[in-house]
């Protein structure tokens, strides 16, 4: 069958789709990936067929006032401390409004939607698989008669919050009279292309979840487990120093991943006496600013680096998180953005690492956390247990077969 993947031009979001795209390619299907022009080189580098459509998004040129509002609803989403607030009507309506007004229209600009619809009508895919912010994929699928599903490359907060918003809206008559900002925006976008506005434009006909079962949120959505194979880190070469036998600590994301009060040079100084090489990515530091056991790199493939790591310090990003899970590496997460905080907390709850609050984390706190994880073997044992859970998830072949079955069912 013909399968059209689509993601707006964001490298990290696209990379989360690559293993599934290859699983379907190897199952014998014709696979294309459509995106805005800025992502084309990344698609081609992944060995996939790229379809450039529309013009690049301008998400990061958002007005400061709008950015503040989006930030309000996308950071500090602590389910333990803020559970009732995060499930309240006021929060959910505010989140839906901020996204529908400021984020999603910029990501799915009119030129991108029109180009994707045009390509889908000409190529006639059987299935469109779309990244959760890329609602243009749902519109293109409906315009061309294809089945379609969302592919959650990380924790599916978008679907989770949307499903709870809809449940609260249906439950109370007063809420039913209130606006549904996402549905209103999608109705306008769909009408421009002669597509009827239906609920599946927001949530797909089903959702492919690509994280282990224990970490999936109870959204009530129709879920198909996706491939949880090792994440795709992008085209890369393995440096020779990775095979020198040394044990390592990885610190990723530079200063932004450490916390509000953490100083990277101070952290590295506090780790100088450890019998580990500390590999730091994107630090902005010069070699003469760090200790002899520190290696500064602009980029290193996470899957390869994790093989020699005893702990990784990161900001909760899906790629590093998944790479660590696959190599059974304990994690210290200092996170506050969107789903990053939840990922760190879930690993900590599983006993495979620690999750630190950026607002209460300084270099001393972070160094103590690293030492604690290194000194207590239970963290490594629990990380290995999580890896075994990963290995019990459906294989890429099984995932491809289930998607085939669901596509046929959706089109009959």
UniProtKB/TrEMBL annotation:
GO BP field: antibiotic biosynthetic process
GO molecular function: hexosyltransferase activity; UDP-glycosyltransferase activity
Region forming the signal peptide: none
Pfam families: EryCIII-like_C, EryCIII-like_N
Origin: domain of life: Bacteria
Keywords on record: Antibiotic biosynthesis, Glycosyltransferase, Transferase
Domain named Erythromycin biosynthesis protein CIII-like C-terminal: residues: 266-404
Location of the Erythromycin biosynthesis protein CIII-like N-terminal domain: 22-254
Family to which the UniProt record says this protein belongs: Belongs to the glycosyltransferase 28 family.
Protein name: EryBV L-mycarosyltransferase
Lineage of producing organism: Bacteria, Bacillati, Actinomycetota, Actinomycetes, Propionibacteriales
């Amino acid at each position: 069958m013909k399968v059209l993947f689509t993601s707006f031009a964001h490298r990290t979001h696209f990379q989360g789709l690559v293993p599934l795209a290859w699983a379907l390619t190897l199952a014998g299907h014709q696979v294309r990936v459509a995106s805005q022009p800025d992502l084309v080189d990344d698609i081609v580098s992944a060995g996939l067929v790229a379809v450039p459509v529309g013009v690049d998004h301008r998400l990061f040129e958002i007005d400061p006032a709008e950015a503040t509002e989006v930030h309000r609803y996308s950071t500090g989403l602590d389910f333990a401390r803020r559970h009732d607030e995060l499930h309240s009507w006021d929060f959910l309506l505010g989140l839906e409004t901020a996204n529908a007004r400021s984020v999603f229209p910029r990501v799915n600009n009119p030129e991108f939607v029109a180009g994707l619809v045009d390509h889908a009508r000409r190529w006639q895919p059987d299935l469109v698989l779309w990244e959760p912010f890329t609602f243009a994929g749902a519109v293109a699928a409906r315009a061309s008669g294809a089945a379609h599903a969302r592919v959650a490359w990380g924790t599916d907060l978008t679907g989770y919050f949307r499903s709870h918003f809809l449940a609260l809206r249906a439950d109370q008559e007063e809420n039913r009279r209130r606006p549904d900002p996402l549905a209103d925006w999608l109705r306008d976008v769909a009408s421009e292309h002669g597509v009827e506005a239906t609920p599946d434009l927001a949530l797909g006909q089903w959702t492919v979840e690509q994280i282990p079962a224990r970490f999936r949120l109870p959204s009530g959505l129709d879920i198909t487990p996706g491939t949880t194979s090792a994440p795709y880190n992008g085209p890369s070469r393995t440096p020779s120093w990775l095979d020198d036998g040394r044990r390592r600590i990885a610190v990723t994301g530079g200063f932004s991943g450490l916390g509000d009060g953490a100083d990277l040079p101070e952290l590295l100084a506090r780790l100088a006496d450890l019998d580990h090489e500390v590999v730091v990515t994107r630090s902005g530091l010069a070699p003469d600013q760090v200790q002899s056991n520190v290696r500064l790199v602009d980029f290193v493939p996470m899957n390869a680096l994790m093989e020699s790591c005893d702990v990784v310090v990161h900001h909760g990003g899906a790629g590093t998180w998944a790479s660590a899970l696959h190599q059974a590496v304990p994690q210290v997460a200092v996170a506050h953005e969107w789903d990053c905080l939840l990922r760190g907390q879930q690993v900590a709850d599983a006993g495979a690492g620690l999750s630190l609050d950026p607002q209460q984390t300084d270099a001393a706190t972070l160094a103590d956390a690293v030492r604690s994880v290194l000194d207590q073997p239970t963290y490594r044992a629990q990380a290995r247990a999580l890896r075994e859970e990963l290995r019990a998830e459906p294989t890429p072949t099984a995932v491809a077969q289930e998607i085939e079955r669901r596509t046929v069912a959706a089109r009959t």
